[in-house]
Amino acid sequence: MNITIVGIGLIGGSIGIRLKETQFGEKIIGVEKNEANAKKALQLGLVDEIQPLDDAIASSKIIILTVPVDAIMNILPNILDKVTDQVVIDMGSTKTNILRLIADHPNRGRYIAAHPMAGTEYSGPEAAIPNLYKDKVMVYVEAFKTDEDAFERADAMTEQLEMKTTFMTAEEHDMHTAYVSHISHLTSFALALTVLEKEKSQGRIFELAGSGFESTVRLAKSSPDMWTPIFKQNRDNVLEVLEEHIKQLQKLYTKLDKEDYDGLHKLIKKSNKIKRIIK
Amino acid sequence: MNITIVGIGLIGGSIGIRLKETQFGEKIIGVEKNEANAKKALQLGLVDEIQPLDDAIASSKIIILTVPVDAIMNILPNILDKVTDQVVIDMGSTKTNILRLIADHPNRGRYIAAHPMAGTEYSGPEAAIPNLYKDKVMVYVEAFKTDEDAFERADAMTEQLEMKTTFMTAEEHDMHTAYVSHISHLTSFALALTVLEKEKSQGRIFELAGSGFESTVRLAKSSPDMWTPIFKQNRDNVLEVLEEHIKQLQKLYTKLDKEDYDGLHKLIKKSNKIKRIIK
């Protein structure tokens, strides 16, 4: 059984390394339109060979899509047109629009929407690492619409990645990821812009930056090519959470502005409840 | 030479462990009004003994203040009243107000304003760790107003902590820390409040939280007793940076709201310049 990975960056490349390590499948085939990245992926051993998309589809049993979500929207219907008994796994970070797009496709049953909750702020084939997925959560969305055998083949692949699994509706998935992933990126982007702006008038401003700053700003290194489409595809949820986040910042602002230090202390103490969630 | 540490939590306790490790000074004396913390500090070996403040001042050559900044404002003038040839090091996170407060004190020369750019989101004596300060930056503020011998004694202590040093004015220090430390905490507090709020209606919302979320929200575990006084003492700068940060978030909001994806892509790309600063 051959496996095709479409898009060999951080996400796809890390799957490639790991599946080669566990020898799941005979050949790992990469599809990559960026020639420099295709070359690098081969050099780094992330895939066994690079093929054109149509050839790769024809010769594989599993086709994994790890390109940005807008690219998935573009190519998925055409890929589904061409499959017979393959399973197509979409690994994108948003699900509602894509599921709507292919809802009535005759080969809908060969498709599974999945989202591995794993990643780093780096991108490209050089960023791929073998243990990216270990012990992380794979979310399956609307899995009951996938053919039984197709789901089982996809889930066998997920097992190779040593992931835990969970099931959600598309609406749940997109709202939850807006709150625990997408907003974190927006707040990092904004924080980086804030400080970079100030640096223009205050050259030494980064001299005192420590681990706290680094921690809150590191996601601002993330790729705009990956994240702009995510925000686009999950626009309503992202706007909702962003509005709420701005409201919370304004609350903190008002307490400080009005010198209501008891109120400020209470808000901070309330936020400390996050200890329940993260160790 | 004995050394007194006033306030044996994360910051003071970590100094205590390290100075005992390097055998700098004969005795490390702790001053701690919270009895449970005093007991724990002794049990953990962070200090050699606990003494009342006045006794500790009388028998020490170095007095290090590691209580919250409002407590430093309260006790520093009284401590300076009682010193003769000691050096008093204030380790607080804000400097302008404290320096104004003791500007005309007859023992001004025995005092040095210092700020170690190190910490974690944990607090209390159990949070103390021996290498907290290694390779981090100690900022000296208005050091030229400190007596030569007092500064040298303080700096010898800083060397024991294996820190790098830098010099700033109070205005520079308070503005820079607002931008690269205080704002990171506010944004984490707000992010935690945002998601905790949503959890009330969406129980499973933290199920998908991964390392990106954890990274941006971990500072929300920080102590309100430490941070409320910092925001109070650095109010003008914090309000300025918070206003700018909200403005940047609103810019991102508007781009997304108006579906200006080119504009959104450009802003994200611009924020990526943070790569220059953090590896």
TrEMBL record, chains A, B:
SUPFAM superfamilies, per database record: 6-phosphogluconate dehydrogenase C-terminal domain-like, NAD(P)-binding Rossmann-fold domains
Q: Coiled-coil stretches, from where to where?
A: 232-259
PANTHER family per the UniProt record, alphabetical:
PREPHENATE DEHYDROGENASE, PREPHENATE DEHYDROGENASE [NADP(+)]
Prephenate/arogenate dehydrogenase domain boundaries: 1-279
One short Pfam name that applies is PDH_N
NCBIfam families cross-referenced by the UniProt entry: PRK08507.1 (NF006307)
Q: What is this protein called?
A: Prephenate dehydrogenase
Q: Which InterPro entries match?
A: 6-PGluconate_DH-like_C_sf (IPR008927), NAD(P)-bd_dom_sf (IPR036291), PDH_C (IPR046825), PDH_N (IPR046826), Preph/Arog_dehydrog (IPR050812), Prephen_DH (IPR003099)
* Keyword vocabulary terms for this entry: Coiled coil, Oxidoreductase
One GO biological process this protein is involved in is: tyrosine biosynthetic process
Recorded source organism is Sphingobacterium gobiense
One GO term in the molecular function aspect is: NAD+ binding
